[in-house]
């Protein structure tokens, strides 16, 4: 099995360009199922999750041509409405095909999702709101089987601003009859990107970027071209790499406003950052403690929690990092402790007493962002860190070893 070997401590320099956002492209790839004419998507990152979604689409009868710089999806001849367990189990975002398939074909059968092992992740909001739109939903042998005589728009209020539920319901509403109002929806930039994509293909969505989306159902979506936003989580990870290694680097190819909360937290703790239109310059900084609580956007993203814990290990003060979105999302903590970090867990909070020199060790990836935290720790640790089960990283970080190596890190991928 492949692993990463990192020899630290590293000093970085130069610039790194982030890829287009996986978390934007996954729902958009589900959204192409709504389109009757070809859709071309630009600069899709080469990631395991993206490949899983492509396989899922091909199984449904979607014809895919081109390469990652410009990939075309022809959904004119869909001959299946079933997303099978073997594909869905590896990636929770697969549930996003439920809304599009159901609204376009009046039937969908999707295996209950798996994905990152970060706690119980129910889909009750997705299902109850689809029912309100007129779906008849049965749970059959691990599958959600949804049928309808035609979805009809209505007023919906989400119990929690779930990203996945907002996306699924939004896509279902696009072809529903009449108007759907979705209140308390997620505000994440990836949700906004999906809405912009759908409108580019002929949907009529207003209120984009607010807590209330209003969707006027249309008969059909056409096709067209789209390019997703830059990956704010990947950007945050490289900015943290710069801060942890006390380096001067430039992270580019994303909208810094999408990371406003994160960047403000960093600056308040002494990080020297210079923000441009599509880039952030990181300068060597002496940081003080960072206390953060994860929350729905525009709050602190759960997807940057693990990397912040790694950052906190390099700050000579105590920091408290609290996880409010998912339980069981601290699997990086015991691995970081094995590298010499002083971290204790109290309920959903991690108390990090920073400043210990980390020491390289063999460590194991457990989920995507936890793995990123281990790589970050490997960059500052003395000696060799062997990061095993790299396939978790391949789900969401395009060419991670190459990008870090280009910044000057001693990192290689070996079998
Ligand atoms: C979440 C993150 C998203 C991140 C992704 C991958 C939030 C709000 N969302 O999105 O930014 O990219 O993980 O790490 O931070 N929930 C229910 N019932 C549902 C749906 C969700 O109870 O039907 C709960 C979940 O258990 C969880 C919370 O709502 O506690 C957030 O879920 P949701 O936003 O749907 O998760 P993802 O879409 O996976």
The helical percent reads: 25-40%
Low-confidence stretches: none
End-to-end distance, in Å? 6 Å
| Largest sheet: number of strands, sense, barrel closure | 4 strands, mixed
Number of helices: 14
Content of β-strand: 25-35%
**What radius of gyration results from the CA coordinates?**
21 Å
What overall form do the CA principal axes indicate?
Answer: elongated
Bound molecules: uridine-diphosphate-N-acetylglucosamine
Mean pLDDT rating:
95
- Helix and strand content put the structural class at alpha/beta
Strand order within the widest sheet?
22-23-1-24
The overall strand count is 24
Q: What's this entry about, in short?
A:
α6 runs parallel beside α7, α8 packs parallel to α10 and α11 runs parallel beside α12. By secondary structure, the protein is of the alpha/beta class.
Which keywords apply here?
415 residues, four-stranded mixed beta sheet
Describe this structure in words.
Helix 10 (305-312) runs parallel beside helix 12 (368-380). It is built from 14 helices and 24 strands. The mean pLDDT is 95. The strands form 6 sheets. It has a 4-stranded mixed sheet. The protein has a 4-stranded mixed sheet with strand order 2-15-17-16. 31% of the residues lie in helices and 26% in strands. The structure holds uridine-diphosphate-N-acetylglucosamine. Uridine-diphosphate-N-acetylglucosamine is lined by residues 23, 92, 121-126, 160, 162-165, 186, 188, 296, 301-303, 325-326.
């Amino acid at each position: 099995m492949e692993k990463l070997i990192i020899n630290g401590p590293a000093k970085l320099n130069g610039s790194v360009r982030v890829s287009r956002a996986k978390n934007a492209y996954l729902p958009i790839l589900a959204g192409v199922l709504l389109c009757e004419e070809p859709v071309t998507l630009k600069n899709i990152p080469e990631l395991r999750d993206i490949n899983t979604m492509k396989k899922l689409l091909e199984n449904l009868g979607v014809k895919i041509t081109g390469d990652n710089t410009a990939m075309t999806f022809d959904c004119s001849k869909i001959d299946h409405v079933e997303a099978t367990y073997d594909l869905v189990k590896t990636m929770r975002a697969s549930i996003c095909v439920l809304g599009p398939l159901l609204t376009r074909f009046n039937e969908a059968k999707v295996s209950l999702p798996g994905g990152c092992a970060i706690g119980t992740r129910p889909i009750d909001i997705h299902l109850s709101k689809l029912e309100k739109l007129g779906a008849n939903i049965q749970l059959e042998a691990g599958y959600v089987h949804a049928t309808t005589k035609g979805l009809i728009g209505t007023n919906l209020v989400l119990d929690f601003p779930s990203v996945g539920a907002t996306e699924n319901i939004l896509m279902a509403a696009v072809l529903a009859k009449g108007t759907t109002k979705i209140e308390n929806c997620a505000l994440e930039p990836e949700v906004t990107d999906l809405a912009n994509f759908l409108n580019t293909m002929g949907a009529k969505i207003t209120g984009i970027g607010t807590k209330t989306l209003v969707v006027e159902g249309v008969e059909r979506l056409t096709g067209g071209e789209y390019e997703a936003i830059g990956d704010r989580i990947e950007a945050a990870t490289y900015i943290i790499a710069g801060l942890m290694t006390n380096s001067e680097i430039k992270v580019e190819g994303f909208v810094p406003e999408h990371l406003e909360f994160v960047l403000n937290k960093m600056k308040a703790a002494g990080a020297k950052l210079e923000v441009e239109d599509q880039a952030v310059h990181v300068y060597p900084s002496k940081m003080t403690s960072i206390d953060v609580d994860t929350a729905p956007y525009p709050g602190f993203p759960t997807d940057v929690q693990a990397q912040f814990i790694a950052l906190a290990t390099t700050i000579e003060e105590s920091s408290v990092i609290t996880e409010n979105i998912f339980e069981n999302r601290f699997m990086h903590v015991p691995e970081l402790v094995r590298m010499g970090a002083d971290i204790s867990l109290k309920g959903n909070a991690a108390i990090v007493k920073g400043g210990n020199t980390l020491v390289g060790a063999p460590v194991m990836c457990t989920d995507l962002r936890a793995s990123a935290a281990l790589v970050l720790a490997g960059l500052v640790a003395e000696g060799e860190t062997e990061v095993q089960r790299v396939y978790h990283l391949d789900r969401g970080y395009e060419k991670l070893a190459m990008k870090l190596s280009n910044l000057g890190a001693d990192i290689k991928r070996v079998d």
